[in-house]
Specification:
The structure is a single chain. By secondary structure, the protein is of the alpha/beta class. Helix content is 45%, strand content 13%.
Length: 173
């Protein structure tokens, strides 16, 4: 319950400064550490956040264990039941299952997605070197094909991509 108190404090600061808070539900699709987990627990916490007028809630697949079926079921339930709340996903995956997870969320009506240039980052506790953030540069053409992409400054994106290559080139080889 201490965490809800902190969220309330941050929400009040956001309201005072005209900002909008985004709250992530870590381990939103499962918990490999033996702590209690069920979709109902996730939905209970989401309901508490909605009662605090949190307008954006994102389910996080923190260690990349979600299946496309879980992404679909969890996201669909929230998108359909929280019509006044923007529901997003922060998916970690391997290159082998990223499209299936992303498609599962898109098909539910989810329109908020996190990505990272080059797919850099992820969770070191995932115990799988292939698990990482969704690659923004892979996601953009995918969303473009579906006509779900707002106008982008492609020059700026290319510059950021080149900067990421320089910054992280030692980590990527």
């Amino acid at each position: 319950m201490e965490s809800l108190g902190r969220v309330a404090e941050i929400q009040n600061l956001c309201i005072k400064s005209g900002k909008q808070l985004v709250v992530y539900i870590s381990m939103g699709f499962g918990n490999p550490y033996g702590d209690p987990y069920s979709p109902e627990i996730v939905f209970e916490w989401v309901d508490k956040l909605v009662a605090m007028d949190i307008g954006i809630i994102s389910l996080a697949d923190t260690v990349g264990l979600a299946t496309p079926e879980q992404v679909s079921a969890m996201t669909k339930y929230l998108v359909n039941s929280l019509t006044g709340t923007e529901v997003g996903v922060h998916l970690h995956s391997t290159p082998f299952n990223q499209q299936a997870k992303l498609e599962a969320a898109v098909q539910t009506g989810c329109r908020r997605f996190d990505g990272a240039l080059k797919g850099i980052g992820g969770c070191p506790m995932a115990n799988d070197e292939l698990v990482g953030n969704m690659d923004t540069e892979w996601m953009i053409p995918y969303f473009g094909q579906l006509n779900l992409l707002p106008a982008l400054n492609k020059e700026a994106l290319q510059q950021c991509s080149m900067m990421a290559d320089q910054i992280f080139k030692n980590d990527m080889h």
